[in-house]
Amino acid sequence: MPASFLYVRIPPQLSEAVEEIKGDTSGGLTDDFVITNARKYFAKSADKEALASQIPDIDKLEDSQKKQLASQLREQIKGQAAPGVADNLANLSDDVILSMYKASTAPGASNSCEIIALTVPTEGNQRKAVSMYANNNAKEDPSQQNLRAMALMQGCGHQNRTLYGDVFVARCHDDEMKDIWTRVDFTKEDISPESEWCRSARASGGGGGTGSSSAHSLSNSMTKTLGGMPQMVSSADGGAAASQQPSPSMDGTEIRTDEYAWSQTDDEVEVKFTAPAGTKGKQVKIKFQRKSIEVKLLDKTVLEGKLGGTIIVDDSTYTLQDASDNNRELCLTMAKDSPGSLWLGVVVP
């Protein structure tokens, strides 16, 4: 029998009680019970089901058909990639390509579910991460504001942002170095902003926010082609559309490059990479130095050079977490040595 766990649904109406839901851990990370059921819950129309019926069932294809489909998908995605990214795509195995495609075309696997990280796994919280699952397409109706979910977000040390409609909250034990990922209980008692885990989240090393930025959205930080691959922004003539990018600022505005997305506040710089499903912590190597950085993902150097400013090495860290499309997200957080200094780029000449 698979192990069970509890998570909660927070309704927007204060008159409605918080609901505890029992899930099972049999799907693991690749078929997570919470994400799967949140997507189904937020799905608004039968159009997705109709679309899914027109998509090949990968599990029923012959090996030769799978190989042909993977080849076609790879070429389609490479054709939309910016120069320099095509080689990385070419190195992805057929299994990875097909698993991404399968995840992105499953019923309900749309952008309807936003995953919001309340805490990331750290030693300080025993590698326990807590995330919210909200409806990306919820109508912005003042009567549907979810005040309890918003209070919980602030209780974890994040700036307030408005959430509408039902919100699910769940916890997992995520220890990449020990190859552990499993769901653990998050109960009705845990939604209090003054609960012990919230107080710990706000403390240094607790995995929550510092009050200087909003909670990190794991799903909205990634643009996708076929729902599962990075989509590179390019100009009409095929070159990188650098002119369309926002200027660096310290208000948390995200800037995208071919390889990563980054943002900054007064106190820190955040850099996010998309990693294939199944990527493990041992496949990530990061060397933080006061004035430089080197990041290797799956034995490929994805970032290297002189930093746009100086950092406090001991206060800089990274996490590797699941994202809503069954990919993984590598997120670097670097503490600025000079708070308030504006970085013009993550790395500079």
Instruction: Name the shape in a single word.
Output: globular
List segments where confidence is low: pLDDT < 50 over at least 5 consecutive residues. Answer: 45-54, 81-86, 221-243
Q: Report how far apart the termini are.
A: 56 Å
**Largest sheet at a glance?**
7 strands, antiparallel
Beta content: 25-35%
Q: Which H/E pattern describes the elements?
A: EEHHHHHEEHEEHEEEEEEEEEEEE
Class per helix and strand makeup: alpha+beta
Q: Determine Rg (CA atoms, Å).
A: 20 Å
Helix content: 10-25%
Mean pLDDT, all residues? 79
Total count of helical runs of at least 4 residues: 7
Give the strand tally.
18
List the helices and strands and how they pair.
Blueprint: E1 4-10, E2 19-24, H1 33-42, H2 47-53, H3 63-80, H4 86-90, H5 94-105, E3 113-119, E4 128-135, H6 147-155, E5 167-175, E6 180-184, H7 196-202, E7 216-217, E8 224-225, E9 229-230, E10 255-256, E11 261-264, E12 268-275, E13 284-288, E14 292-297, E15 300-307, E16 311-322, E17 328-336, E18 347-348
Antiparallel strand pairs: 1-2, 1-5, 3-4, 3-7, 4-5, 5-6, 8-9, 10-11, 11-12, 12-17, 13-14, 14-15, 15-18, 16-17
